[in-house]
């Protein structure tokens, strides 16, 4: 059974990926400092799997602590690196914290992986590396333009670091960069899902919290963009579909099928939905009427971005299978489960 270290494994995408790894026959090991996640996710994972998943409560930027985890676990076949701060708006307010955490933790991880001879890495990147693209949809060959936020710049920097490290003469690490679009929804069991600390930075948990009465209203940040209805357009991918893409990527690395030291793939649905479309689709999925208002644009937001998924479809043989309606229904089911606790 291949042992896969999952940094940020108690987070939103991380927890779903841990479940998919275990169900696919891997042995996931979680690293998380719980600065941007909650320990209740571990209970949710255990409830789904029927067993605990080992968890090391450390910061990935702590070199000595990370070394001790690698030595204690031994025989680690690969790493999936999620651990990062991830809110566009917050990154504008706290840029130094984002650079320190996101870039620093990757450097530390790569250093320890090389020391311990761990050769396989799946890196959690983002469509924010494309900046404001000239043409849509974006392919993996679309030029990266200046990022619209410090968060986006950290992902650009991390990708550059991975490429530069791969070019070193002593490098043995093979990496797959997965550029996600916008993950939404929750596990079908409603045992794990998106669980933001404080006021949500992402659209869907703000929608579900508003529908549940936890928020007075949803503010849509701008309706004057050059999009069909004036609101931002994004590529929303069901989080369990996204988690499954990581399993495909890990297996590709373990099977030594990667064609080069660093491979890059978009992971999305291949089409975009506007914020207003998200609101109306959620209302259909949940039967709830949503209270929303139009506010000013938010700093750091790009007008529209969605993926060309040809490469991930043909090379990884990965396809999303869940509709937007079903993904939003799962998010509402998760919110209702939280409300009962």
UniProtKB/TrEMBL annotation:
<keyword id="KW-0520">NAD</keyword>
<keyword id="KW-0119">Carbohydrate metabolism</keyword>
<comment type="similarity">
    <text>Belongs to the NAD(P)-dependent epimerase/dehydratase family.</text>
</comment>
<comment type="subunit">
    <text>Homodimer.</text>
</comment>
<comment type="pathway">
    <text>Carbohydrate metabolism; galactose metabolism.</text>
</comment>
<dbReference type="InterPro" id="IPR036291">
    <property type="entry name" value="NAD(P)-bd_dom_sf"/>
</dbReference>
<dbReference type="InterPro" id="IPR005886">
    <property type="entry name" value="UDP_G4E"/>
</dbReference>
<dbReference type="Pfam" id="PF01370">
    <property type="entry name" value="Epimerase"/>
</dbReference>
<keyword id="KW-0299">Galactose metabolism</keyword>
<keyword id="KW-0413">Isomerase</keyword>
<dbReference type="InterPro" id="IPR001509">
    <property type="entry name" value="Epimerase_deHydtase"/>
</dbReference>
<protein>
    <recommendedName>
        <fullName>UDP-glucose 4-epimerase</fullName>
        <ecNumber>5.1.3.2</ecNumber>
    </recommendedName>
</protein>
<feature type="domain" description="NAD-dependent epimerase/dehydratase">
    <location>
        <begin position="4"/>
        <end position="268"/>
    </location>
</feature>
